[in-house]
Amino acid sequence: MPFQTLHESLKDSPCKVVYVCRNVKDVLVSRWHFRRKIVRKDLYSNYSLEDTVDEYIKGAYLFGPFKNQVLGYWEESLVNSNPVLFMRYEEMIEKPEAQVMRLADFLDCPFTEEEKQSRTVEKILELCSLSNLSNLEANKIGTSTCGIAHQTFFC
What we know:
56% of the residues lie in helices and 6% in strands. By secondary structure, the chain is mostly helical. It has two domains: 3-94, P-loop containing nucleotide triphosphate hydrolases (Rossmann fold), CATH 3.40.50; 111-155, no CATH class. Strands 1-2 form a two-stranded parallel ribbon. α1 crosses α5 (66-79), α2 packs across α4 (49-58) and α7 (96-106) packs across α9. The longest helix has 15 residues, at 24-38. It starts with a helix and ends in a 21-residue tail after the last helix. Pfam families: Sulfotransfer_1 (PF00685).
């Protein structure tokens, strides 16, 4: 979404937006693996990482050019930090407790000292862990609205 459009849509909005950004190299590699996994093999049997990079350069992504999307949210978070929290995936991996507390603060529900002492943040991280989520029955069966098996997202 272009910056101006994003700014206009959030300006009077009571909602808060959390945007999680990931290193572009990781995005491209993940997209390539995911696409090869979910799309019919006969259509993408020769789908290379270079093809993914070419799509990126051309801006052929679901929500428009990746660079514009990320920059739009980043700029909005700098200009108007109240409704937009810009988080980096790498920071979430490096210091997950700090990022959960940052998210809680942003949502106006910071952790109390008692919650911190009772390890509530760590419990939330465990509940949200990939190993826990991938073992939930709801994520082992069924498909998404676009027909992708839920378990595909957790392999």
